[in-house]
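The following record pairs a protein chain with its ligand, DP6.
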Amino acid sequence: WVLVVTARTPTNIAVIKYWGKRDEKLILPVNDSISVTLDPDHLCTTTTVAVSPSFDQDRMWLNGKEISLSGGRFQSCLREIRSRASDVEDKEKGIKISKEDWEKLHVHIASYNNFPTAAGLASSAAGFACFVFSLAKLMNVNEDQSKLSAIARQGSGSACRSLFGGFVKWIMGKDKNGSDSLAVQLADEEHWDDLVILVAVVSSRQKETSSTSGMRESVETSLLLQHRAKEVVPKRILQMEEAIKNRDFASFAQLTCADSNQIISIVEKWNRSEGTPQVAYTFDAGPNAVLIARNRKVAALLLQRLLFYFPPNSDADLNSYIHGDKSI
Ligand code: DP6
């Protein structure tokens, strides 16, 4: 017999960024972060997990190619999920798996990203969130989403935020063992439905520096990082929570752009000329821009402008990912 579960998890885009770890192994951050989770159809990972007594080892395929599961991050997630597995019964198929059986059974995992892997669009976020979620379903793990988020966090920090839709906060936590470093939902998908998120995929090449080594370098060499984590981000987190609660786009845009370390002149010029912000931009660890428009009308104008700068068939492959509505 084979028992199969499939799950789909969207990626998330941080508006107040996680940058820097205080514990590399457990993946504990130096500051809280806030993100928005995209609609599940757009940038997402789909993962199918299967268990069968005929499998003689754990194996995984990513976008159709077998990859090694021996890395510490995969192993941590697998171990944490297995240790919480409970009895599973499928009467129709005549399958009965006891809690203890899970220690001996092996899983096969097939995962697909519908967007460029490791190009700085948080593929590891969707990937590890889906990995943990689908295994937890297969193994009948009875934990709430926040507890699962603390497991996904050990795969990739940003993954903990993809366990929820809408606006999500990753609370950095205080415990040394990481038990209180987990994600909570600030507002659900419906709360600020006007917002439109456009992802300008200007390069699908693998990013040159991984988030992990970039963060390590910043922690080791940047005097400003301590200041950012201790002084700047805590204030921004409070202001961002307030902006989200009140759907206050002016504050949201100002904070999002301030927390992103690059400048896109179209957006800056436009916001200046309108007198009040219309669009926010943010970059993760790759070259691809994420643009958040205050409503669909602005999103349509924005798309026109972007198409002017990046016409179809140019090097840039411009994609728009829109909350609930693909029609702009
Ligand atoms: C810039 O979660 O990819 O996207 O924890 O080492 O796997 P690891 O890093 P990762 O870093 C994401 C960094 C970021 C900001 C963010 O998503 O908050």
